[in-house]
Amino acid sequence: MKANVGGIDKVLRIAAGLGLIAWAATGGPVWAWVGIVPLATGLIGWCPAYPLLGMSTCSSRKD
Q1: Residue pLDDT, tens place only, 28-46
Q2: What pTM does this model have?
């Protein structure tokens, strides 16, 4: 599993995930628990949808 979620993408996913989870925990709609998905993909650094779409937000390094 090669990382395909880059720096800014990680930060945005984690922030959105935490926001949705906090909203759900404080009486928001049940669907807001979907915030677990962006939080997990941001923390892991891999999104299963990206290979299907042929994309990556990681910067490519040249050795």
Answers
A1: 999 999 999 999 999 999 9
A2: 0.87
- pLDDT confidence tier of residue 61, bands split at 50, 70 and 90: low
| 15-18, Cβ contacts within 8 angstroms, sequence gap of 24 or more | 17/42
Sequence ranges of the domains in the chain? 7-47
CB atoms within 10 A of CB 55: 10
CB atoms within 10 A of CB 6: 13
Cβ-proximal residues to 56 (8 Å cutoff; 6+ apart), any chain: 4, 5, 6, 50
CA distance 22 to 9: 20
